[in-house]
Amino acid sequence: MTVAPYRPDTAVPHRCGGALRVVAPTAAAPLDPSCAPASAAPFVRLHTRQLVTWQAARDVRDWQAVTPVPDLALEVPSTWNAGLGASHRSYVFHMRPGVRWDTPDRRPVTAHDVVRGFKRMCNPVRPSPSLAYFAGTVRGLAEFAAAWAAEATHRAGDAATLAAYQNAHEISGVFALDDETLVIELARPALDFVQMLTLPAASAVPVEHDAFVPGSPEAAAHLRANGPYRVRRHRPGEWAELVRNPAWEPAADPYRRAEADRVELRLSDGAGRADAADALAEVSIAPAVGGLPAAEPVDGDGAPGWALDPYLVLNLRDPVWADLRVRQAAALAVDKAAVADLYRRHRPGVPVRVAGSLIPPGNAGHDTADPYPTGDPARARDLLASAGHADGTPLVLIHPHSGLGPEVAHACASDLTRAGLPTRAVGLADAAYTEALRAPATAGGWQLAVAARVPDWLEHNGRVFAQAMLQANPVPGGANHGGYASPEVDALIERALDAAEPWRADAAWRAAAERAVADVAVVPILHRAPVAAPRQPDRVDGLVPLPPQGYAVDLTAARPEVAG
User: Fold this and answer.
1) What span, in angstroms and rounded, lies between the C-alpha atoms of 463 and 410?
2) Backbone angles phi, psi at 147, to 5 degrees
3) What radius of gyration do the chain's Cα atoms show?
4) Closest CA to 134 of 494, 488, 478, 459
5) pLDDT at 14 over 60
6) Considering only CA atoms, which of 125, 131, 106 is closest in space to residue 202?
7) DSSP secondary structure string, 466-521?
């Protein structure tokens, strides 16, 4: 079925142009798609394209809002158009004509550029946060990533060395038949594979990017665009300016626009509280913990895609958590109801629920069970006594400066201390916080962290919680920040990934999440309804959400006020 793209109301005359100003936490806005998290998708969408994408939708309950549509590809492969094999393991994509790179010769985007993007997401210097999804799905990708990582242990990580390895080796399941035809073969059928292809990691990448280390400031400053905007100026961690891309053809891009002349992106590391009101920011992007202060809830209880926001990560590499009773004490210590009240004060009107399960409502595998009632310090102290736990050096609880991170961290630290686990909250700028979660062994010692997880897509999405947060994965990426490992949970995850029917997958995701919460792999605190920025802020019009991208607005369609 062909889906008509959303277009802003053309019955009301308007003028294109002006500057769209956006403020966002640093961690949410990396520009290099090869190492950008899913939360960066609203920005990556400005200058890159993937095989499939999402369309903006005013009614987020509309099925078209959560159904991928063809982007670089002419069609979404299916058995009906002969793009999907009978085994549901082989996808054939035909490239859309007229899509060009912002290079002097305006070279066409080819299937080879998509292959390069898949390889580059596996780079050992800054692998994509989404790598675990693809490694468990695409044939040969896990082996390619593991071999590259092994090679990198005894070779330099400079751009030339990385490019040499990348271009001399192939992913067995990702190959171009010619410039216009791409084949992706899966290790097993996947209910959510097309949704995965919308992530920044699946962007096409031009050969020019081989000259730079993925994720480096140099790479961000020299990005070649195939979307409606290109990066003109960039200061890492502070700001970026994007202007219209002269190589972009609207006729070859059904789902993006270029209403503003330029997009001015201002980043904050959280130290200045990026969620504060900003007179210059016409559009705000939510910080990791707590959402936006001036946000609208999206259809409350009926909305798909609730977030796990916040939860506590336990760094299970630390021996303090070796005894299950100590972990259970930590789970019982947190007064979740008090944190819910904190959210209601700071985010009025946004529904929240005390969380017992890892997977929130509106996501595949959600369950209402709660093995640990909220705020029971007496029982927590009893468990610590039975475990023979003695007070020692206070535990370190890290948190981001942005959003409600400080408020949540200090509330949890007080609860843990009261229950017999002395805890000290330590705030980090967003970039340092992200690095500490990504590589806890090299980023300083911490025992707990305040975190949040928003689903990366909305259909068949059990893996964005259970697999990403729980699987003991041999490849980098994912959100298993605490190093949790359980053969039983891994087996349930494999069962879910192997399932051909959604109901079977959901049952396995639910069982994996229940087992992990019983193990206290993490401590769920709240489930938060999805939120979006105000739809019509001052001086900007045309804001329509992209529900699968955390309900962020489609920045390409935003129309800033134009004088005159």
Assistant:
1) 31
2) -65, -40
3) 23
4) 478
5) no
6) 131
7) HHHHH---SSS-SS-TT----HHHHHHHHHHHH-SSHHHHHHHHHHHHHHHHHTTS
Find out whether the peptide bond into 37 is cis, omega within 30 degrees of 0.
Answer: no
> What separation in angstroms does the CA of 63 have from each of 41, 66, 238, 352, 561?
20, 6, 37, 24, 32
**Upper half-sphere CA count for residue 503 (Cβ side, 13 Å):** 0
Indicate the helix (H) or strand (E) that contains 405: helix 405-418
How far apart are alpha carbons 482 and 475 in whole angstroms? 15
Please name the residues in contact with 510: beta carbons below 8 A apart, sequence gap of 6 or more: 359, 365, 366, 367, 462
Dist CA 265 CA 239 (whole Å):
5
**How far is the C-alpha of 445 from the C-alpha of 443, rounded, in Å?**
7
Q: What is the pLDDT of residue 435?
A: 85
Only one residue has tokens 């609207």, namely 250
Whole-number Å distance between alpha carbons of 439 and 453: 18
pLDDT in tens, 209-245: 999 999 888 898 899 999 999 999 888 878 889 999 9
Dist. CA 559–CA 240, nearest whole Å: 19
126-185 pLDDT, tens digit per residue, is 899 899 999 989 999 999 999 999 888 777 789 999 999 999 999 999 999 999 999 999
Q: Do the strands 448-453 and 522-524 form a parallel or antiparallel pair, or are they unpaired?
A: unpaired
Which percentage of the chain shows pLDDT scores above 70?
Answer: 89
Q: What is the pLDDT of residues 354-380, one digit of tens each?
A: 998 999 998 999 987 777 777 889 999
**Cα separations (Å) of 563 from 18, 39, 220, 501?**
8, 32, 32, 54
This prediction has a pTM of 0.90
Instruction: Dump strand ranges (E) for 50-205.
Output: 52-53, 69-70, 90-94, 174-178, 181-185
Report the C-alpha gap between 110 and 164 in whole angstroms. Answer: 20
Q: What is the DSSP letter of 335?
A: -
Do residues 542 and 296 make contact, with C-beta atoms less than 8 angstroms apart? Answer: no
For 53-66, b/e burial (b = at least 16 CB within 10 A) is: bbbbbeebeeeebb
At 98, the amino acid letter reads G
Q: What is the 3-state secondary structure (H, E, C) of 270-296?
A: CCCCCCCCCCCCCEECCCCCCCCCCCE
Tell me the two tokens of residue 235: 């200061």
Instruction: Specify the pLDDT at position 551.
Output: 83
How many Å apart are CA 375 and CA 384, to the nearest integer? 15
Q: Indicate the DSSP class of residue 447.
A: S
* Residue whose token pair is 């210097």: 125
Q: What is the pLDDT of residue 561?
A: 76
Q: Can you tell me the distance from the alpha carbon of 204 to that of 108, in angstroms, rounded to the nearest whole number?
A: 11
How many other CB atoms are there within 10 angstroms of residue 68's CB atom? 23
- Paired with 395 in beta bridges are 423
